[in-house]
Design brief:
Strand content: 35-45%
Distance between the termini: 41 Å
Radius of gyration: 14 Å
Structural class: alpha+beta
Largest sheet: 4 strands, antiparallel
Order of helices and strands: EEEEH
CATH architecture: Roll
Helix content: 10-25%
Length: 76
């Protein structure tokens, strides 16, 4: 990714893998030297390329976790 710097602060989990070797991951990443955020996106096997993703602050991640727990516990 040209012009964008990122540093993996903490590798959390691989959520899935495709046949082409891309992995969908959740990590704690610092983008362009800023405060690290939780990041969900796909990466190529060597992490030279990545897909579009979403970044979340700790508060946003907590709200997402709560919403998902409520949804999954609903059992519809």
């Amino acid at each position: 990714m040209k012009g964008i710097q990122y540093e993996f602060v903490k590798e959390i989990a691989v959520l899935s893998a495709s046949g082409s070797g891309y992995t969908k991951e959740i990590n704690l990443i610092s983008w362009n030297g800023k405060e690290p955020k939780y990041d969900i996106r796909s990466f190529s096997p060597n992490r030279e390329k990545c897909g579009k993703g979403i970044t979340l602050t700790a508060d946003e991640a907590a709200a997402l976790l709560k919403a998902l727990q409520e949804e999954l516990n609903r059992g519809d």
